[in-house]
Amino acid sequence: MESTVGLVEIRENEKRKKQSLRARYVYGFVFFATNILAWVLRDYGNIVLDELHYFRICRKKEEDCSHSKGVLRIFFSFMFFTTLGTRKLNQVRNSWHSNWWILKLVLYLLSVMVSFLIPDVYIHIYGEIARIGAGIFLVLQLVSVIEFITWCNDNWMPDSQTKQCDLIGLFFATISCLVSYFGIVAMYFMYAPETSCTFNIFFITWTTILVNVLMIVSLHSKVNRGLLSSAIMSSYIVFLCWSTIQSEPLNDKCKTRKWISNNSDWTTVLGFLIAVFAIVMATLSTGTDSKSFQFREVEAESDDEVPYQYEVFHFILSIGAMYFAMLFISWELDHTTKRWSIDVGWISTWVKFINETFAASLFLWKLISPVVLNKDIQTEEPSPPIRISI
C-alpha cells in the first residue's frame, strides 16, 4: 500500500516538474510580448490614449504620456516576490508559478494599466530603481556569458596532461580570433574614416588594447588557459564595442548608421526586431542559468524539489524588463525617443562602453585570480620551497 502511494506521489511530482519546465516557455513568450507592447505604447500610445478621456493623470504631460509610463513594467517583480523561497513541488507557490494563468493574465493587464493611472512621481521613482536593476542585469548577464565561455573551454579544449589536439577547440579559437581582429579593422574603416572621429577612434583603440591583453594573459605560462576562452571573449568584447558605436546619436559628425538611413525603412524595422529578439533570448538564457549565481554548494536534487529556482528566474526577468525599459527610453526618463529606435543616445553609449570594460576586467580577473590567490596563500603561510613545473 505504501509503495503504491509512493508511486502515485512520484508520478504527481513528475507531472508538476514538467508543468514547471513548460512554464518557462510561457513566461518567455509573455516577456517577449511585454517588450513588444512596451515599444508599441512608447511609439504609438499617444494615438490611442488621446481618444481615452479616462486617463486624466496621463494627459497632464501628453507628449510623454506613453514614454516612460509605457515601458516600465512591474509584473515580473510581482512574480519574484510571490515565488520567493519555493523549494518543493507540493507547495502552493509552485502551483502559482506553473498554473493559474487566467488570474495571472488579469494581474498582468492590471499592472499595465496601473502605470498610466498613478502619478508621475511614482513612475520616476520606479524609473530610478529600474536603472539600478538594469545595471544588475548587465552584471549578471556578464557572469552568465563568462560561465558559458568557461564551459566551452573545459569541454572543447584537451586536458593539459593528454597533449592531444582538439579540433573543435582549435576551430572555434581560430574563427573567434579572426572575427575579433577583422571586426576591429572593419570598425576602423567604417566608423573612423577621419581623425576628427575622436570618440570612435578611442572606443575602437581601447577595444584593441583589451583584446590583446586578454590574448597575452591567457597564453602566459603562469596562466596557461589556452586561446579558446580569450578568443571567444574577445569577439564578444568587439561586439560590445560595435554596439557602443551604434548607440551614438544619428546627428553625430561620424554617423554610424548613415547608410541605413539612406535605405528604406524596412532595414530599421528589421534591425529593431532582431535586437529585441536577441536581448529576449539573452534574458531567458540568463534566467534559466541559475547555477551560475549560486555561491554555495547545493545538495543533490530530490524528487520533490523544484527543477530550477523560481525566484532567480523571475528576478532575472524583472531586471531584464527594467533593462529593456532603459533601452527603450535610452536611459533617460524625461526625454522622448525617436520611433523605431532602441538604446540610442550618449548615455546609452557610455553605459555600453563601461559594460565592455567591466566585462574584460571581470574575465581578466577570472584568468589571473588562481595565480594571484595562490601567490597570496604561499606568502601568508611560509613553507619549504616547492618546485612547480609549468
TrEMBL record:
Q: Report which superkingdom the organism of origin falls in.
A: Eukaryota
What's this protein's name?
Answer: Serine incorporator/TMS membrane protein
Write down the species. Dioscorea alata
